[in-house]
Design brief:
The structure is a homodimer. By secondary structure, the first copy, chain A, is of the alpha/beta class. In chain A, about 30% of the residues lie in helices and about 20% in strands. The first copy, chain A, has ten helices and 13 strands. Chain A has a seven-stranded mixed beta sheet with strand order 3-4-2-1-5-6-7, with helices on both faces. In chain A, α1 packs across α9, α4 crosses α6 and α4 crosses α9. The longest helix of chain A has 18 residues. At the A-B interface, β8, α5, β9, β10 and β12 of A face β8, α5, β9, β10 and β12 of B.
Chain lengths: ~350, ~350
C-alpha cells in the first residue's frame, strides 16, 4: 500500500453491532476514505447504511470483494475471518481483523495503538484487533508495567451484553421487560437469564475450567505486553448492562507503588481518562463510558497490605475502544507509517 | 435465659426487607416462638404482618418493648441498634443484631454458625450478625483456611440492590422501566443510575480510598476467622440485580491446592452447595440462589500459574444467609446451648 490522499476501505460484517460503529468512527474521525464497500452475508444485501450523509448499499461478501480495496476492517466472526482474510491479503489488501481467529498466530501483529504500535512491523497483511476485555486492561497495564514491572494481575470483569452482538442486546431488553411484568423469560443467546442476573460464563468452557474469554485475556496480554511472565488470573462475568465493560483489577508489581503516583502516571498516559474524585462520587461507570474512545480509570487505591499492589476500576466502551475505534486507530497508524512511493518522490 | 419449650421473640425493624424475611424464616424453620413482638418506628404502627397464618400488629419500638422478651432480632439500622440494644440487654433479653454497630466491638461475638459457633461464649448480651458480603465469603473460606491456611484473598463483588433495602429495589425497577421506555432516570437511593449500570460504590468512602463495605469485608473476616494476618483486597460493586450477591474470589494459601480436592472439601462443608458442572452450563447464579439458605459455590479452578491459588464464584441470598437466615441460625444455636435451670433438674 502506498501513500495516497484517500483510500478504498471495506467493512466486512458492516451490518453488525461493531460494523456499524466502524462506519461511524470512520466518519467521525474524518478518515480519508475514497470508496467505502459495505460487505455482509447474502441476507443483508438490499440494506443501506449512512456514511457522510450518503446511503451506501450493502454488498454480498465474495472472493472478488477486495479488488481495489486498500484496507479491509473485518468484524464478522472467526469463520469469515479465517476464510476471507487470506483472500483479501491475496488482493494486496491489508486486513484489520476484529475476530479471535488470527490474534495468537505467530507473525500476526496484535495491536493496541497506545500500547504496542511498534509491533506493527513493516510488512502488513493481517493485523489483529485484541479482545475487548483485553484492550481496556492493557491500556491501563502498559504504563504501570513500564514503570513498576507487573508480576501479577487478578481481574474480575463486568461485561455488557453488546459484546455478544445485537441479538443479545434485544434479549436483555425483552427479558428485562418480562421480569418487570412478572412474566417468565426466554433465553436464546445466553444459556440462562441475563436480566437482573450475573453469568460467570463468557464464550465456551475449556478443559481447565476457564472460559475461552478468560484465556484470551491471559494470552493476548502476554503477546501485547511482550512478557509471558505476567501472571493473569481472570474471572469473566456477563452482567445486565447494555454497553461498556467494567473491570476490577488487583495488580502486583516488582517495585512498590503509591496510589497518588499511579494516578498521576495514568493521567498522563495515552488513551486514558482518570475519573477518580470520591468526594463527588466520581468514578468510571458503564453508562458514562458509552461513546468515548478513552479507557476510564478510577478507584485507584493501594492494596491494604502490600506496598507493591494496587486496585483499579477500569471501564470502556466495548464496541468502541474494545473494537471499532481500536480497529480504526490501527488503520490510522498504518497511514501515518506510509510513505509516498519512490517513483513519485523521484519526479 | 433458661431452657423453655417456647420463647418470646421480638423483631426490631419488622417491616423492613430483612425484618420480613426474619419472620418468614422463624415460621419456615418452626422456631419455638411463644409470643412474637413486631417492633418498628411509629409510622409503621397499624400495619399487620402474617406469622403462622395469624395477623400480628406492628408496635412502636419503645424502651419497655423488651420486658418479657427472650431474644430480640434487630434489623433497623445502626442508630436504632446503638440506642436500643443496650436497653434490651438491660431487660435480660439477648440481642442478635444485624447492623454494623456492634460487630467490631471487643467482646461482642460476630457469628456465622457454620464457621465460628465456638466464639459465642457463655454470657450472651449482644451477638452480631456479620455483613452480608462477608458471611457468604467466610462460609467458603473457613474449610479452605482450616486445611490449607489462607494467606490472601482478592475479592470482587457483584451485589444486588436489595442490600440497600426496599426503596432500592423500587429504584432499580423504576429506572429499568424508564431506560427501556427511552425516558431519563431519577436516582434517590444511589448517587447514579443503577439500572443497566455498575457502581463501584457501596456504603461511604473512607480516607484510604476504600468504601466502608470493603473495609467491613476485611475486618469482619479477620474477627470471624480469628486471624488478622489474612490479606483481603476487596472491590465492592453494586450491580443491577434485585436479590442475591455474587463474588469472584482469588484465594492464595500456604499449602498447595488442587481444584478437585477443594471441590470435594467444599461439597462436604456445612452451609455450602457446590454448583459446578460446566458441561451442563451449571454454575451459581443470583436468580437461582434466591430463597436458599446455603451458599452456592462454583467455577472452582486452580490459578493458571500458582499451585497455592484458586478461583471461586460464590453466590448467596443476601437477605437470607446474608441476614435473616444467619440471624435465626444464631438464635437456634443459643437454644441448643441452653440447659434447663438447676432448680428444675433438682426436682
Amino acid at each position: 500500500m502506498n501513500k495516497k490522499d484517500k483510500y478504498n476501505i471495506a467493512v466486512v460484517g458492516a451490518t453488525g453491532a461493531v460494523g456499524r460503529r466502524i462506519i461511524d468512527v470512520l466518519e467521525e474521525r474524518g478518515f480519508p476514505v475514497a470508496n467505502l464497500s459495505l460487505l455482509a452475508s447474502a441476507r443483508s444485501v438490499g440494506e443501506t447504511l449512512l456514511f457522510r450523509g450518503q446511503k451506501i448499499g450493502v454488498k454480498e461478501l465474495r472472493k472478488d470483494s477486495f479488488e481495489e480495496v486498500d484496507i479491509a476492517l473485518f468484524s464478522a466472526g472467526s469463520t469469515i475471518s479465517k476464510q476471507y482474510a487470506p483472500i483479501a491479503v491475496e488482493s494486496n489488501c491489508v486486513v484489520i481483523d476484529n475476530s479471535s481467529e488470527w490474534r495468537m498466530i505467530k507473525g500476526v501483529p496484535l495491536i493496541v495503538p497506545e500500547v504496542n504500535s511498534s509491533a506493527l512491523g513493516e510488512k502488513w497483511e493481517i493485523i489483529a484487533n485484541p479482545n475487548c476485555s483485553t484492550i481496556q486492561m492493557v491500556v491501563a497495564l502498559k504504563p504501570i508495567h513500564d514503570n513498576y514491572r507487573i508480576r501479577r494481575v487478578v481481574v474480575s470483569t463486568y461485561q455488557s451484553v453488546s459484546g455478544s452482538g445485537q441479538k443479545a442486546i434485544e434479549e436483555l431488553e425483552q427479558q428485562s421487560r418480562d421480569v418487570l411484568d412478572g412474566k417468565s423469560t426466554r433465553s436464546n443467546v445466553y444459556p440462562h437469564q441475563i436480566a437482573f442476573n450475573c453469568l460467570p460464563h463468557i464464550d465456551s468452557f475449556l478443559e481447565n475450567g476457564y472460559t475461552k474469554e478468560e484465556i484470551k485475556m491471559v494470552n493476548e496480554t502476554h503477546k501485547i505486553l511482550e512478557d509471558n511472565t505476567i501472571e493473569v488470573s481472570p474471572t469473566a462475568v456477563r452482567v445486565p448492562v447494555f454497553y461498556s465493560h467494567s473491570e476490577a483489577l488487583n495488580i502486583e508489581t516488582e517495585l512498590p507503588m503509591r496510589a497518588d503516583k499511579i494516578k498521576e502516571l495514568l493521567s498522563r498516559s495515552p488513551g486514558i481518562s482518570v475519573v477518580d474524585n470520591l468526594k463527588n462520587n466520581e468514578y468510571p461507570q458503564a453508562v458514562n463510558a458509552c461513546g468515548k474512545g478513552d479507557v476510564l480509570i478510577g478507584r485507584i487505591r493501594g492494596d491494604l497490605v502490600r506496598r507493591n499492589a494496587i486496585n483499579l476500576w477500569i471501564v470502556s466502551d466495548n464496541l468502541l475502544k474494545g473494537a471499532a475505534y481500536n480497529a480504526v486507530q490501527i488503520a490510522e497508524l498504518l497511514l501515518k507509517r506510509l510513505t509516498f512511493p519512490l517513483s513519485i518522490l523521484d519526479k
